[in-house]
Amino acid sequence: MLVIILFIMLCVAGKLVGGNETGVQRAERSIDTIIKIDILPNDSRTFKITWMDDRDVYNIEYTCDSSRDCAEIVNKVKFTLNKSIKLKA
Q1: Which pLDDT value is given to residue 55?
Q2: How many angstroms separate the Cα of 82 from the Cα of each of 16, 62, 67, 88, 89?
Q3: Quick one: which of 84, 89, 86 has its CA closest to 34?
Q4: What is the per-residue pLDDT for 67?
Q5: pLDDT-based confidence at 68, cuts 50/70/90?
Q6: Reading across the β-sheet that carries 43-52, which strands appear in turn?
Q7: 27-45 per-position pLDDT tens digit
Q8: How far, in Å, CA of 89 to CA of 86, rounded?
Q9: If you ran DSSP here, which 8-state letter would residue 41 be given?
Q10: Residue 13 carries which DSSP code?
């Protein structure tokens, strides 16, 4: 099973400034638990990732140094998620 260690992936080259967690207790999750990841429409430096586990749905917002860094991170996570889905098919 493909696993993302989110903080390692997002902190590459200091691109991540900070995150706002709502009840999240694990820093490591299977990529299969990602429901959605998108850049916020009102802030191009911030993205929101939505996770689902056996019991709950979690939303975490991360703010990056720049809009470009934010787009790069979101695209890399989406690419990895799509690759994971194709491997299962």
Answers
A1: 84
A2: 22, 21, 22, 10, 11
A3: 84
A4: 93
A5: very high
A6: 16-21, 57-64, 43-52, 34-40
A7: 567 778 888 999 999 999 9
A8: 5
A9: T
A10: G
When the pLDDT of each residue in the chain is averaged and rounded to a whole number, the result is: 74
- The residue written with tokens 């299962």 in the block is 88
CB of 3 closer than 8 Å to CB of 44 = no
pTM of the model: 0.71
User: All domains of the chain, ordered by start, with CATH?
Assistant: 3-88 (2.30.29.30)
Which two tokens mark 71? 């787009």
Q: What are the angstrom distances between the C-alpha of 62 and each of 1, 15, 54, 84?
A: 25, 10, 23, 23
The confidence score (pLDDT) of residue 36 equals: 92
Strand pairing partners for 43?
40
Q: Are 37 and 77 in contact (CB under 8 A)?
A: yes
Residue type present at position 42: N
The DSSP symbol for 23 reads S
